[in-house]
Amino acid sequence: MNSRIIIVNVIRWFLLLFVQIFLLKNMGFYDLSTPFIYVLFLLLLPFGIPNIVLYLLAFGTGLTLDAFYDTMGVHATACVVLAFVRISFISISLNRDAIDDPEPSLSYMGFQWFSLYAFLCVIAHHFVLFFLETFRLTEVGYTLMRCGLSCVFTLLIILLVEFIFYRRTPR
Predict the structure, then answer these.
(1) Is this structure's pTM higher than 0.70?
(2) Which positions ≥6 away from 134 have C-beta within 8 Å?
(3) Pseudo-torsion of CA 151, 68, 17, 77, nearest 10°?
(4) What is the DSSP secondary structure assignment for residue 33, as one 8-state letter?
(5) What are phi and psi of 98, to 5 degrees?
(6) Which residues of the chain have pLDDT under 70?
(7) What's the alpha-carbon Rg for the chain, to the nearest Å?
């Protein structure tokens, strides 16, 4: 990995966490839908990143958010689950040796692949996040509704950000 990719990802980490903590933390729709844009950092990490580094970055990102949200390890657990789903999806859907693209983004992988990838990762993250946050089975309907609405809201913002920074590349 070259230094340019590392610098871009460090800036992306600070920027997305800043937006999440200071802008989106209190933004919600009747406490039913909360956007979590910080997962985009984990989604856009390069394909060649070692799995242990990905898990450590996911855990550190979640722990940082837990410090600001006053949740004890909920975001860290959800981010580690997201990293696991990311590794599984990429290993099933792509041949890592044949990949010339540096990162999984809309520009390089196309709308259909990226939207499925983002959907699976976000749904796994939100499912774990909201069920650990509630931690009761008596509110399953409410928790599933929060999870679904937050997934839609988060995916719309992720796709919007990806379309803003979209670069047309020849395939």
Answers:
(1) yes
(2) 142, 143
(3) -50
(4) B
(5) -95, 5
(6) 1, 96-101, 167-171
(7) 16
